[in-house]
Amino acid sequence: IASEWAAEVGASYTPPTFGQGYKLWLGTDIFGRSVLLKVIHGTQIAMSVGLFTSLIAIPIGIAFGSVAGYFGGFVDEIIVWFYTVFSSIPGIMLLMSIAFIMGKGITTVYIALGLTSWVGLCRLIRGEVLKHRSREYVQAANAIGASHPRKLFKHILPNVSHIVIINTSLLFQTSIKSEVILSYLGLGVSGQPSWGTMIDDSKLELARGVYWQLLGASVAMFVVVLAFNILGDALRDALDPKLK
């Protein structure tokens, strides 16, 4: 269905209509294209942004955080200094800089968000690994001659995996909102509808009383972000041992 968004299904700016097929449930845009199909395609874009951003940011955050927390000392100081300097740059400015350098496109959005979204997880993993590295089970593994990689990957990281799962659900909705902002500013997705471009297009439409494109994109974003927030809270309640 999402691939049919470019087809003309009615007259320009047809208001939401029921009884003439689902494609007109949210009306049409200036070119007679179904707003509902554009919203569905925007949902596909949003989900892909959340997925690929997580695939980039999560490994970076885990790698830096676990190494800093496990080895401590000079290694920890270097990594803490790096992510402190990195996080001191306003996030939107960093995203816009990367987008300007790489140009428009969905791949740029993946890379820009992935490279700027790992700091929060890095902090959390570092703190958890710092606590776990002195626990009895790690000392026991050290006593039998376990190597550093084995202690880290076999014993410590499985015990902090709940942090990764919870953070992934939260990163999804943050990435979606960031993609909407970039697309609204003209630095994100181009050549295909996303919620950000739909909201940007609706600026001039509102003066003509055409509200349904803004309504469709805003409601879709609200529902998806709310769903991932609820999922994050549920995962935290289920997986965080401190809440049990």
Overview of the molecule:
- This protein has 244 residues and is mainly alpha-helical.
- Helix content is 71%, strand content 0%.
- It contains 10 helices and no strands.
- It has helices at residues 35-71, 73-88, 91-102, 106-116, 119-132, 136-143, 148-159, 161-184, 195-205, 212-239.
Could you outline the blueprint of secondary structure elements for this entry?
Elements: H1 35-71, H2 73-88, H3 91-102, H4 106-116, H5 119-132, H6 136-143, H7 148-159, H8 161-184, H9 195-205, H10 212-239
Radius of gyration: 22 Å
Roughly what fraction of the amino acids lie in strands? Answer: under 5%
Q: Give average pLDDT, whole number.
A: 87
Q: Profile the largest sheet.
A: none
How far apart, in Å, are the first and last alpha carbons?
Answer: 43 Å
Low-confidence stretches: none
Globally, the shape reads: elongated
**Portion of residues within helices:** over 70%
